[in-house]
Amino acid sequence: MFNQDKEQVVEEVLEGTDNIVTEKISEENSSSTPAVNVAEIQDYLNPKLFHKVKVVKEIDLIKDLNSDGSLIDSELEALYEGTFGDISEHSLIQGRVVGMNDRDVLIDIGFKSEGIIDRSEFKKDDLPSIGDQVEVYLEFIEDASGNTILSKEKADFMRRWKELNDAFENESLITGTVIRRIKGGLIVDLGVVQAFLPGSQVDVRPIQDFDVYLDKEIELRIVKFNEARKNIVVSHKIILEDSLKEQREALFQELEVGSVLEGRVKNITDFGVFVDLGGIDGLLHITDLSWGRVNHPSEVIGMNDSITVKVIEYDEERKRVSLGLKQLAPHPWDEVEVKYPISNVVKGKVVSLTNYGCFIELEPGVEGLIHVSEISWTKHIKNPAEVYSMGDEVEAKVLFIDSNERKISLGVKQLTPDPWDEIEEKYMVETVHKCKVQNLTQFGAFAELEEGIDGLIHVSDLSWTKVIKHPKEVVEKGQELEVKILEVSRENRRISLGYRQVLEDPWPAIISTYDAGNEVSGEIIRVLDKGIIIQLENEVEGIIPFGKMSKKDRKTLAAQYEVGANLSGLVMKVSPEDKKVILYKEELAGAGRRNSATDEVKQYLNNQKTNSGEKLELPQELLDIASQAEKDGENGKNNETENTSEKQE
Fold first, then answer.
1. Domain shared by 470 and 593, yes or no
2. If you count DSSP H runs as helices and E runs as strands, how many of each does the chain have, helices first?
3. Is the dihedral of CA 417, 423, 424, 425 positive or negative?
């Protein structure tokens, strides 16, 4: 600072010399002399004119200025330097108001010039008067214009910042006003300085609506003070916790399992409810809210509700308390056998659906199961959801109670008479009834006699003459038929139906038509490994078996015949049981046995009477061959049909 003053003195000396030269030139120009002599002007610029001017360097000022005494008095210098001892930029200083205009307020801070503060930094109702002492912040000793710049706002901020820093270090309480809401919390005005109040630090219980705190003054404690970032975080919760600490300790000493306490619901979650017991938070788990099913705690309890709870467990070290609400009421299973006697009809609400049945809530904590088999006497129900929905009101009969396992079996079908009790009287064997085909399977067709009562038409009972491999060859779903009752079993809940039995049996007429020894012909419909099947009249099939021969010879022989070609043979036997007419053909009898078999057949045919009422007795060997060929042919056809069905599926 002192060096700067010395430089200023030198500059003033030089400026004084320049002023002398400038004034001299001005006087010459303003004289009445009509013309200016250039030579004379140059004399004024002659360096000899400045031979008496002493040029002082900075180092000379440092060494000799005080000893010289000709420029600055030592006492004056001491006084002058004293004015700068306590003044430095970016610091708080005291000043006195010495002037004011429409834009600025002039403050004397003991410097060579007054400092300037923008008038807008003062509140309109707090504008200082001339002579008032004001604490200000020195921003710049001298700006580009040579003015000393001061700030009232920054002075207030610095002063308040220091106070808050002291409060943070001493853990003192402060007061602030909530001015606005932001994401995650609130902004609090601490007087010039603003602080952040996180939402989790507002209260000991979760806050649902922060707007209720706006414009309210609350006590706070500073929990984070960041000098570099000028950031302050405050808490109101910590004050409340401190005040509740003693109360909490006293309450824990008095806690006992089984104690009944009053509390207030402070938070609701998916798994339970947190209850404020007056300094201690207890958890009321969802399973301890009610003896009945509770999907969410909000179904039973609301926020801020006052409730009475029972202490069922507590851990003093971990400060955890487990509470119960349902424990204050008697267990509903204590008198369940008295309330719900067996065979009584009860009402309840569907509270759960499973694959095997539905659970009915008779009262909170008491549920009964309606098994899927107990829903209907007649319908085959695969899933209870086909009949019931959640929340449905259902009537049922109590079937069984197991108090130890806490199980109640209920039935719905028991509320109506069992139609199978009188089924044998209603559907007597050999009677004919109308029905409707409901479903087709590989082994037969299910037909509905009445709602819920179905009977089975086996595939063998669909036709007198045709060998049916699948019911769809004769009937279709939804078709109405007349059937005959073949068998009724109330115990097994089964009814056997016959479709062909409604029609007259054609086999007596067929037997008379196909006399043994007659030659008949028909179209080949199947060629099997052991015989050929042909279509005869009256929708009857004939089978011509191959004789005894090797498998290779049979394949060679079978390859000579094609489906659709005509083939004839001699009638050997009519078999209604197998729905076949067994035929004989010499070419198919086999090479090794052909002659002997042919001779035997001819001999029998010549010696046997063939009246219409007589039956031809054929050699057993030929009958065995025909029978085996028929069985092999049927097995082959069945395999073929099953393979086709699997491919379709």
1. no
2. 12, 30
3. positive
Domain final position from 82, 108, 133: 82
Specify whether the CB–CB gap between 358 and 384 falls below 8 A: yes
Same domain for 617 and 561: yes
pLDDT tens by residue, 502-555:
888 888 877 777 877 788 888 888 888 778 888 888 778 888 888 778 888 888
Q: Assign residue 150 the CATH number of its domain.
A: 2.40.50.140
Most distant CA atoms of the chain, gap in Å: 188
Q: By C-alpha distance, which of 451, 446, 395, 371 is closest to 419?
A: 451
Q: Is the dihedral of CA 289, 292, 298, 303 positive or negative?
A: negative
Quick one: DSSP state of residue 286?
A: G
**CA separation for the pair 30, 219 (Å, rounded):** 79
Is residue 411 located within the same domain as residue 426?
no
pLDDT tens, position by position, 424-454: 888 888 899 999 998 899 899 999 888 878 8
Type of residue at 12 = E
> Domain boundary at 267, 302, 328, which?
328
And the tokens for 125? 């109702």
Residues 610 and 529 reside in one and the same domain:
yes
Residue 244 covered by a domain: no
Residues 251-255: contacts with CB under 8 Å, at least 24 apart: 251/277, 251/278, 251/279, 251/280, 252/280, 252/314, 252/316, 252/319, 255/280, 255/311, 255/314, 255/316, 255/321
Residues 42 and 16 in one domain: yes
Going by the DSSP 8-state scheme, the letter that residue 429 receives in this structure is T
Residue 352 host element (H or E) = strand 345-353
The closest alpha carbon to 24, from 53, 44, 47, belongs to 44
Question: CA-CA distance, 176 to 448, in Å (whole number)?
Answer: 84
Count of domains observed in the chain? 7
CA dihedral 145, 146, 152, 153 (to 10 degrees): 40
User: What type of residue sits at position 103?
Assistant: R
pLDDT in tens, 382-410: 899 989 999 899 999 999 999 888 899 99
Residues 112 and 116: their CA atoms lie apart, in Å, by 13
> Does any domain span residue 132?
yes
Please report whether residue 334 resides in a domain. Answer: no
Question: pTM score, two decimals?
Answer: 0.44
Task: Tell me the C-alpha distance between 286 and 269, whole Å.
Answer: 9
Contact yes or no for 401/340 (Cβ under 8 A): yes
Domain span at residue 261 reads 255-328
